[in-house]
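INFO  loader      accepted 1 record
INFO  loader      residues=256
INFO  predictor   begin
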Amino acid sequence: MADITKIGDFFQSSPHPAWLATSRGECLFVNPALVRLTGLKSDQIQVDWRSFVLEEDRAAASASWQRSLASGTPYSTRVHLRGFDGVPATVELTAFGHKHNDGTELWLFTGSHVHRTTQQYPRLEAQLQATLNVIPAHTWYALPSGALTFVNERTGDYLGLPKDHPLRFGIDTGPEWDAHIPLLHPDDQEESRRVWSICLQTGSARESSIRVRNAEGGYRWFQTQVEPLRASDGTLLYWIGVNLDIDERKRGEGSS
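INFO  predictor   done
INFO  writer      dumping tokens
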């Protein structure tokens, strides 16, 4: 419930249209920015999110989302949302899924406006950071080169990063593709560098178990999953990472 409340707080303050939906598409929350954009009424909020999309885009948007559901990868596409004034709004739509312990899967959608005349891709950093900060896990993103550029608040606190550290703000300081490796346990570094290299060369997702150093200098086991976030034309925009704490399970297995 605390996670839902935190997501609700983000919804209220975000200037971008955003909503939370189940894996079936049913909306649980929508934020004021979406209401202002679409003119939704109170009895129209808890409906399938695809009803916000213009009919001409609906089939493609739905098919793309079904592929994300099946693969567990982030969702990214460009759609036209219904405008309250009758003028469609072109939006770059991004969504991330999160599975709770009870098996329930929820998806957080955020959309950045695309200028109606130039139709250029907007910068996604602010949108990504806001989204990753409300996901109840250790999350981060890296540039297409593999350079770690942002960690969410939970990760920054775990690592003991200063409050003004560039990684907390997504500031590109020109790190190398493997600059994050020293954060890992020495016994995991060589294999992690090898797997990350293959991931970057192939443009494919990866999943592995690693030990990450905390602020006190100790290590905890994490299941890390990395997925490529691509634009609608296939261009690689970012690598999105989610690290789930599995330390108790690993220690129970005698694998520490």
